[in-house]
From TrEMBL, chain A:
InterPro entries: SoxG (IPR007375), TrmE/GcvT-like (IPR027266). It comes from the Bacteria. Pfam families: SoxG. SUPFAM superfamilies: Folate-binding domain. This is Sarcosine oxidase subunit gamma.
From TrEMBL, chain B:
One of its GO terms (biological process) is tetrahydrofolate metabolic process. GO terms for molecular function: sarcosine oxidase activity. It comes from Limobrevibacterium gyesilva. This is Sarcosine oxidase subunit delta. Coiled coil: none annotated.
Length: 197, 91
């Protein structure tokens, strides 16, 4: 029996429309429907996991503070010898099973699709809005596309990924905190105005 | 506010870390007398100067780090992964 389809905790909290201050540089806030899989190398097996992912997915696992992509899968570094793998929604648990099959006993694989929620914020002033909530320097000279930081955002544990050069950021938070997180994010974005797609 | 240059994540603010005490204490052997265990658990030097201490990057990469901090000025001289042997600076 398969688990039920993931239900977004934000389903009733993200209503399309334009909010906050009027202006010509709003930020855009949306939820991304993703499959999230956490991959931990077992003790001393980091190189084995890296070569297994290279062989099985043609994916070179990223170094600290970075992201790497291969096909539809993006790997985010979250701690030494551990990565968060992000992919478009597919059948429940399929990606986790494929990764586990590739890594064997060198890695531990946990499907986090239900456990985490991914918000996306983009627009010219996205970094300016995020800077109110997080302590990492988001200036383009310090934090560019492809960078990842595990850091509190709005005092909640978050994986912050500079996912596109637009600029756009993915914010991966615990699903149980997603509503509270969205409230902080939209409050910070009132000043620029924000658009929910 | 202390800035700790995590060897994995780069410079981060103190609020992301949890202080975990003196990193120079060593657990006595299992057959050591009770006094040795009392010292191990409770007795600390409280120096005025350089101190090697554990900080846990709890809200970041979740690694334990050794930090060399000056207890008067809060200057951080060195941050290293947990397995690194770090000497207490004399000056």
């Amino acid at each position: 029996m398969s688990a039920p389809e993931p239900v977004s905790p934000l389903a009733r909290h993200l209503t399309a429309g334009r909010y906050g201050a009027p202006g010509d540089a709003p930020v855009y806030i949306s939820e991304r429907q993703c499959v999230l899989v956490q991959l931990f190398a077992r003790k001393g097996r980091g190189d084995d996991v890296a070569s297994a992912m290279q062989a099985g997915f043609d994916l070179q696992l990223p170094s600290p503070g970075n992201a790497a992509s291969a096909g539809e899968i993006t790997a985010l570094w979250i701690q030494p010898d551990a990565w968060m793998l992000v992919a478009p929604r597919g059948s429940e648990g399929a990606l986790a099973a494929r990764i586990k099959a590739a890594c064997g006993d060198a890695g531990s694989v946990v499907d986090q699709t239900h456990g985490r929620t991914v918000l996306h914020i983009s627009g010219r002033r996205a970094a300016w809005v995020l800077a109110k909530l997080c302590r990492v320097d988001l200036h383009p000279s310090a934090f560019g596309p492809g960078r990842v930081a595990v850091t509190p955002v709005a005092d909640l544990a978050c994986v912050l990924h500079h996912s596109d050069a637009a600029p756009g950021f993915d914010l991966i938070v615990f699903s149980s905190y997603a509503v509270s997180f969205l409230e902080s994010l939209t409050h910070a974005a009132l000043e620029t105005g924000y658009d929910v797609a | 506010m202390i800035r700790i240059d995590c060897p994995y994540c780069g410079p981060r603010d103190e609020v992301e870390f949890a202080y975990r005490g003196d990193a120079t204490v060593r657990r006595p052997s299992a057959d050591a007398p009770a006094d040795a265990f009392y010292d191990y658990v409770y007795t600390r030097r409280n120096p005025r100067g350089w101190h090697v201490e554990w900080w846990h990057h709890a809200a970041g990469c979740r690694q334990f780090l050794k930090v060399v901090r000056h207890t008067m000025t809060h200057e951080v001289r060195q941050v290293a992964p947990a397995t690194t042997v770090v000497d207490v600076p004399s000056e």
